[in-house]
Amino acid sequence: MNQEDRISFLSPPRGAAPLPPGPVRYWMQAAIRTRYNHALEYAIHLANHRKVSLEVFFVLTWNYPQASRRHYQFLLEGLADVQANLSSRGIPFVLHQGDPPGVALRLAGESSSIVTDRGYTRIQRGWRDELARQAPCPVIQVDTNVVVPVETASVKEEYSAATFRPRITRQRDTFLQPLSPVPYWNSRGPLAPAAALPPADSVPGEPLEEALPGGEDAAARELTRFLEERLSRYSELRNVPDRDWTSRMSAYLHFGQISPLEIALRAVDYHEAVLEPGDASGVETLLEELIVRRELAINYTFYNPHYDSYQGLPQWARTTLEEHRDDRRPWTYSYRQLEAGETHDPYWNAAQHQMLRSGRIHGYMRMYWGKKILEWSPDPEEAFSRAITLNDTYQLDGRDPNGYAGVAWCFGKHDRPWKERPVFGKVRYMNDRGLERKFKEISRYTRRWTS
Ligand SMILES: Cc1cc2nc3c(=O)[nH]c(=O)nc-3n(C[C@H](O)[C@H](O)[C@H](O)COP(=O)(O)OP(=O)(O)OC[C@H]3O[C@@H](n4cnc5c(N)ncnc54)[C@H](O)[C@@H]3O)c2cc1C
């Protein structure tokens, strides 16, 4: 087993210096779950080994960029599950409020080690670096939100799924290993109920009309429903906008409320135990999305410092978009018109309304949604920044490597040049007639989200 690849020592080596006294603390940042959490199990293992106590903490900041009420609601539901599930294992959980690296640094002064998990965006990396630079105790990072650890999968930014797929597929099965919970040596049984968590309603933004419930328990239930009801026809129906046939796992994955490893293992097990051999394509298609595509997006975010801006696009895409910068656009809209879902195109408006009302857009329609923002904005840079802002503000799974790679894909990232045409240049094009040809019942999707 290569699970050691998940572990990195972030702080400078201490030589023979003795460890400071104090508990082991796990700073839960990006893996808000107690199941299939390698960082948590590693922290328990350290505390057991040293016979010191363990505490898990999370630092809630109320001004995380672009997070609104819908995101806080989902996050807090996840933290409530963590609190309850840790308490049943006899492990204390403390919620702090304030500046995350500042609080983590203060706690590092009273800890023998800080273990943390791993998010890949600039802000998450910045917080960990700040702690690691200044902490008086060792800081250990455990890469638990991917199947294959990022640097093990590839040591550089990959050009496309075609270059990444063989690398990650070679290593996939080594890392598709179950993770058993380690009993905590100092557990004295379930802990007394902790203080209630703060409510999300002080944060600006409307509550969602049709929200997925947040938290690892809801994620596990949703996964069971997906396996039982939709996995066998996932390949066939996942791209049909009026059939909501995908797993709905992305928001849970974004908040770390479920592990991709658990999804993959449960899907493979379910397939072997219940489905016919002819249904194999469902599980293989899911693993392609969940491992190849998702971890390619993480590869991009990790290795490309411009992952959320126009500069992150490949040179061929920027050149062709530049050549078509002054092309006449058949329609242009302001940011506000797009945000309100008020364009001439009923399919696009439906996708935008789905996002406003439910915090997600059907996977196929996300591509169409991003392509049209490119077509209808005054220039490609403005289009890119609008797509990122809308995606991060309204998608429950926004502010995620998948969102950055997804938007960038609409502008040519991880894709190849196609036939040249106005505005798009050689970037792949999509149009409403294509949707109508492909999906006879597309009007059902439109009615569902615009009535
Ligand atoms: C413009 C645009 C914006 C996007 N924004 C986001 C975003 O903010 N957050 C987000 O998580 N995904 C985003 N995606 C990727 C993808 O559309 C969603 O992950 C997917 O629709 C989520 O639904 P699901 O969980 O039911 O997916 P399923 O089809 O059930 O797939 C299972 C899992 O595989 C991964 N996955 C599926 N498709 C992709 C993909 N194309 N790229 C990378 N990983 C994938 C996701 O983690 C997903 O949860 C975006 C795509 C585009 C084109």
TrEMBL record:
Task: Name its GO BP terms in alphabetical order.
Answer: photoreactive repair
* Record bears the keyword DNA-binding: yes
Q: Which Gene3D superfamilies match?
A: 1.25.40.80, DNA Cyclobutane Dipyrimidine Photolyase, subunit A, domain 3 (1.10.579.10), HUPs (3.40.50.620)
The record's similarity note reads: Belongs to the DNA photolyase class-2 family.
The protein's name is Deoxyribodipyrimidine photo-lyase
Write down the superkingdom of origin. Answer: Bacteria
Tell me which EC number(s) this protein carries: 4.1.99.3
Q: Which UniProt keywords apply?
A: DNA damage, DNA repair, DNA-binding, FAD, Flavoprotein, Lyase
- Positions the record marks as coiled coil are none
Record field: catalytic activity? cyclobutadipyrimidine (in DNA) = 2 pyrimidine residues (in DNA)
